[in-house]
Design brief:
single chain, binds NADP nicotinamide-adenine-dinucleotide phosphate, eight-stranded mixed sheet, 2 domains
Length: 314
């Protein structure tokens, strides 16, 4: 049998890199696997991080580099390969990438989530130049401007209220005439004077050449189309977990328990339903998905990993 790691961490975003730092400092035989050449995860696409303590104004790419340098300085073994399939049940877990097979006593799932896209024309082209998937990250760029939030859940309503503090006006566009968001959030929304709700409407096109200039909407009841002049479009129609590599056909044997959205069920300790399998960061079923919470998860999860290794060795 070849080498058996103490822990293999899959995904090198803030959660995975923090887990790697803590694992190395705990003197665990650690391997960090990341499919992209660059580690960093979702923050690589964030212009400016304004809410990670000590790094105000940092570009997301630069913060990712800082995390990465820290991992490298500690001498963590890391590879750029995409995981294709896994066997997670049993004492020794096996990870197959397109190039090799790796074995480990524990696994940390840390591949994060991706915001759901609208799929509207203009969305991809203007992503980062007016189209955003994170109001807390990018809202400050739209001070005294006009923005639109798409969605009717808790995140959309929270985003609209958050944006309304700095924006001249915020539209909330929802595909039904009733919000999914909790009642208390709805009350706060309806009490905010510079928010206007546009009901029964979907985005059919995001307008602009190099910068967002507006949005074309369609009323789903009347089929009538209209345009709003806006500077920013915030898409808040839910998140998708990056779980394809450890579910469905990619999974041999038993898998971890998922919530109805496909996120891995675990508390802050990262302990999943399968012994020796842990989760950290945005992939975990939780409320707030931010760099700060991902970093916290990455630190916590290694305490759970070391406890598990100690118990299974005794
Ligand atoms: P969500 O609850 O799934 O809401 C997504 C919203 O987007 C829904 O209103 C949905 O419309 C709409 N939508 C989905 N696909 C769409 C499309 N293609 N075009 C237009 N609209 C679309 O997602 P979320 O708001 O991101 O929240 C995720 C989870 O975190 C939820 O469980 C939420 O309760 C939780 N959360 C809780 C809090 C809190 O407790 N304060 C804060 C944040 C998040 P329909 O309603 O018509 O389906």
């Amino acid at each position: 049998m070849g080498k058996i790691y103490d822990v293999i961490i899959i995904g090198a975003g803030p959660a995975g890199m923090t887990a790697a730092i803590y694992a190395k400092r705990a003197e665990l035989e650690t391997l960090l696997i990341e499919k992209n050449f660059m580690g960093g995860g979702q923050i690589l696409n964030t212009y400016e991080i304004d809410n990670f303590p000590g790094f105000k104004g940092y570009n997301g790419f630069d913060l990712g580099q800082k995390f990465s340098e820290h991992v490298d300085e500690l001498g963590v073994e890391r590879i750029s390969e995409e995981v294709r399939s896994v066997e997670l049940a049993g004492e020794i877990k096996t990870i197959w990438t397109e190039e090799a097979e790796y074995q480990t006593k524990t696994v940390v799932l840390a591949t994060g989530a991706s915001p759901k896209k609208l799929g509207a024309p203009g969305e991809e082209k203007l992503s980062g130049t007016g189209v955003s998937y994170c109001a807390t990250c990018d809202g400050a760029f739209f001070k005294n401007k006009i923005t639109v939030v798409i969605g009717g859940g808790d995140v959309a309503v929270e985003d609209a209220i958050f944006l309304a503090r700095g924006c001249e006006k915020v539209y909330l566009v929802h595909r039904r005439n009733e919000l999914r968001a909790t009642k208390s959030l709805q009350t706060a929304l309806f009490q905010t004077p510079n928010i206007e709700c546009v009901w029964d409407s979907v985005a059919v096109e995001i307008l602009g050449d190099t910068q967002v200039s507006g949005i074309r909407l369609k009323n789903v009841k009347t089929e009538a189309e209209s345009e709003l002049k806006v500077d920013g479009v915030f898409v808040a129609v839910g998140n998708e977990p990056n779980n394809a590599w450890f579910t469905g056909e990619a999974l041999k044997g038993d898998g971890v328990e998922l919530d109805k959205g496909g996120f891995v069920i675990a508390g802050e300790d990262g302990v999943t339903s399968l012994p020796g399998v842990f989760v950290a960061g945005d992939l975990r079923s939780k409320r707030l998905r931010q760099v700060a919470t991902a970093v916290g998860d990455g630190a916590n999860v290694i305490t759970s990993v070391t406890d598990y290794l100690t118990e299974s060795a005794s």
